[in-house]
């Protein structure tokens, strides 16, 4: 950080009343590492600072390794207790009841949509699905703290972010059914949503694809001076990809306004975190790359909201990346291609479902504040199910896109070899039409 940047940051933090203690920035880390060596103060002989271009600390004259097992772990920031009570008045985001109710309705609607679409895959009606159970707080808390124009790069388990932005149940269902109303024209697997209108980049299956893309987009935003930031969601498993490290380093060195938001949900399919990494989670890497970093309780929607709001302010005011590690738990199976009972116990899952659930925590808060009661809960559950079932039935009954669409939208003018393939496909289907369910498709001939 330059002297100017540092000064600006201090004034900015003061003016916003931000809690610097929750955000570990480079400056604080340097102080911490200096303390580590305070038992070995440099003698006068070594009373000089290292001038190596890549180091920022001091000389020591006794050999000492930093033992990661002896350094305190990075703390987890919470705003709301499990009983739904604000822990510190200063951390109350003071959201109005309308916003809190929208948060709750989106979290529960996402749950209902997940249940129906998961079941629909089990019945063979769609090809694939991934649920978001247990991680609703990370989606809604972060989405609510952003500007709608901030660009989102997701992994695949962030449907709640789109829901908050206004992607409709019909749009979710149309994509999962790959029907003629699907924005992607049926050319992607279910849950690979994308929406230009919602500033949500289309999901890519290969892990970490979105991470260098997000760093690049943030660099473009910095150059455009548009006052916006980018948020990049990724799992703790994806963080092991080389692309994750390239993204962190480019963003940090080039001072790009991007929030790297890690959903640490304990598993990467069947790989538990203890087999994924040896260090202190993903947050410790943020410090290593020189990014302000915070670890939050991802099942506390207000903690996530506060962290993303402060991170966004920092990104935009200082043009620099911030890393947030949201600790949560994947309650559902990884996807419909997984059976998690093979690698984890029912008791473990039940603990997170019943004892530490983001939805019940927010509901406790709402009940404590008289925003919500049993009657409202019952009525909303019924309405949510009806809304989901209506969109589901409509999406299922819609025709599938014209098969010709698979040749469109890559090239401006269709190249000759693809033109030939298209004609071959049409001739083949025409010849064997009794073997194809053409009545379910938009007219091919
Ligand atoms: C490059 C690549 N390698 C492997 C996979 C297969 N794969 C899909 S999801 C996944 C686990 C990712 O775990 P995590 O990043 O923690 O996200 P989560 O599913 O827990 O939300 C793996 C290994 C893939 N899609 N891409
Ligand atoms: Mg994971």
UniProtKB/TrEMBL annotation:
The protein's Enzyme Commission number: 1.2.4.4
Magnesium listed as a keyword: no
InterPro entries for the chain: Alpha-ketoacid_DH_E1_comp, DH_E1, THDP-binding
Pfam name, any one: E1_dh
GO cellular component: mitochondrial matrix
GO biological process: branched-chain amino acid catabolic process
UniProt function note: The branched-chain alpha-keto dehydrogenase complex catalyzes the overall conversion of alpha-keto acids to acyl-CoA and CO(2). It contains multiple copies of three enzymatic components: branched-chain alpha-keto acid decarboxylase (E1), lipoamide acyltransferase (E2) and lipoamide dehydrogenase (E3).
Protein name per UniProt: 2-oxoisovalerate dehydrogenase subunit alpha
Species: Lottia gigantea (Giant owl limpet)
